[in-house]
């Protein structure tokens, strides 16, 4: 029951607030306690996400969904999560169909939208842009990806998935070994996830990337300062060995600066069945934020792993609904009423 979450403490929305507002801009807003309290709220949402129970707790509320970059999962799952709480969604996708194409500023767009809707979910190609939306309004704003910056809701659902997979196996996140693979320079999901994982104790990270796509130094330093072991390699076979979690990412070519190339990124970088069978353990979890490039020869997570039980990618996407429902419930201050509001579907 989420009604018991945070008993004797300030509401979760206040504990994770950004600049005193109920907003989600960065995973840096969480400590381990607030993250685990959010996971309890997500657990309460599971029967609704699975269509066994229904709630109308957000009836009458309207979500503004502003996506200025391509998205399938994040846009649709945020919208579905809001609808499953009883709310409705108004959206605009791409610059072409927004008045930003006529030169309207982020400030004006955000002020106008906050007169129409009760919460905003925003994806935008510039790092820091969603924080700019948030500064212009007092309604809840959620960062659904700000260029190469962060993707906090993805990292939260990734860690929620790791916890659920580990719980099934009787394992803990503390002390685990996580291999992150691929484009660690521009992959915003790994930037957010490594920060969240570093809230736990005694992890080992193996960062597998070609030199041109390595994890930013400030994140490597942050993780090392928090007492975790961190190794970097460009050898995929070596990097996967012994890992409890392999988190693969797509090369974000759309973020390459002029003249940047895929130097050092060979076809052998593909995470495929033969490699996983040779290098991974029987209980290694294989994850990816998706989308993946499934074309033959692509340097990504291979489709030949689709029937391998270690592949958790669709359990990840399913968990996007309860986690995003939990975020809305917390930021809109109704998380303690959800359990009581539920009835059978
Ligand atoms: N993982 C993710 O952000 O997917 P979309 O780009 O489809 O939203």
From TrEMBL:
One of its GO terms (molecular function) is aspartate carbamoyltransferase activity. The keyword Transferase applies. Its EC number is 2.1.3.2. GO terms for cellular component: cytosol. GO terms for biological process: 'de novo' pyrimidine nucleobase biosynthetic process; 'de novo' UMP biosynthetic process; amino acid metabolic process. Signal peptide: none annotated. Residues 175-330 form the Aspartate/ornithine carbamoyltransferase Asp/Orn-binding domain. Keywords: Pyrimidine biosynthesis, Transferase. Residues 24-163 form the Aspartate/ornithine carbamoyltransferase carbamoyl-P binding domain. It catalyses: carbamoyl phosphate + L-aspartate = N-carbamoyl-L-aspartate + phosphate + H(+). It comes from the Bacteria. The keyword Transferase applies. Pathway: Pyrimidine metabolism; UMP biosynthesis via de novo pathway; (S)-dihydroorotate from bicarbonate: step 2/3. Catalyzes the condensation of carbamoyl phosphate and aspartate to form carbamoyl aspartate and inorganic phosphate, the committed step in the de novo pyrimidine nucleotide biosynthesis pathway. Belongs to the aspartate/ornithine carbamoyltransferase superfamily. ATCase family. This is Aspartate carbamoyltransferase. It comes from Variovorax paradoxus. The lineage of its organism: Bacteria, Pseudomonadati, Pseudomonadota, Betaproteobacteria, Burkholderiales.
